Structure formats: structure tokens, C-alpha cells
Sequence to fold (187 residues):
Amino acid sequence: MHHDPLSFLRQRRSHPPRTLQPPAPDREELTDLLTLAARVPDHGKLEPWRFVVLERPALERLAPLLADHVTRTGGDAAAAQKARDAFGSPLIVAVVSSPKDHPKVPEWEQFLSAGAVCLSLLNGALAAGYGASWLTGPAAEPDFARAHLGLQQGERIVGFIHIGTRGSAEIPDRPRPDVASRTTYLS
Fold:
């Protein structure tokens, strides 16, 4: 558990799903993490997103269906196995963009709110001491998501947040951006 927010943000890093082990947060702890994740910018108070929680039984049921989907849509055996393995995490939360018609809040802004939910959930899980990662992949494709994750017309998967107990191996940091080269100041 992290108590210094700025120190946490300076050091935060995702944990690849293959490194995650059980246990995942229980439903009570996950509800707390989802509640924290929902505290994002939301112009118009539209709540243009929702959660689909994929627990182990659902992931075990969906993994072969996802592998079949990848094969049917042109993927080779390696791609199908990679897709199947992606559902090996202890718990995955699908964050769904569910935009609302609104005269003042464009759909793209609502989609960004759903992206903010993804990052908040990822950071909340990491701050709580879990390993976590934000991915998409073939399960986010509209045909699969509608058929197997209950997405409605106009909804999209913004991200799958994989959550579990951190493995024992240290996760190396990746090269970080040179912020100065990506920043322009206007006076």
C-alpha cells in the first residue's frame, strides 16, 4: 500500500498479466476500487461508462471462445494462443465506453472520461498493492465484445484492467519519455 501519492506516481509501473497470480481483490475490495475509479472528470455527470467484471470462471469459459474468434478472423495459432493466454489473469475488469446523447458533451469527451476510469482503476489497484495492467486486444473487437461481454450498439471496450497479486519477479522499468522534448510553453 502506498501512502505518498507523488512518490507512487513517480514509481508506478504496470505488471504484465503473465506475472499476476491469485488472489485478486474480493468483491468488496473490488467494489471499493471501482468506486474510486469512478471519481473521474465527467462533464454533464453522464457516467458514460460501465464495468464488466470477468472473474475466473468467466475467463476460463471465454478464453477458448476468444482463441476461436482470433482464428476465424485470420489470426494464426500463435495469435490465438496469445489471446487465450491474455485471459489467464486472476481478474479482469472491462471498462466500457457507453456514451449518452447530449447537446453539449461530445462523444469523444465521454470516451476520454472512460479512459480516465481505466487509468484510475489501474492506479487504484497498484496503490492497493496489487499488480495490474491496462490492455485491449482482440477481446475488445466489437463483434466479440457484443457476442460475449454484453456490449450494446454504440458501446466500446476502452480497456481491460488485469488485476492480481504481484509475482515475485521485479518488473523492470521501461524507457520513459523525454518530457522536455514533448512540451511547448506559450507565454
In short: The two ends are 40 Å apart (CA to CA). The first helix runs from residue 5 to 11. Residues 18-166 form a domain with the NADH Oxidase fold (CATH 3.40.109.10).
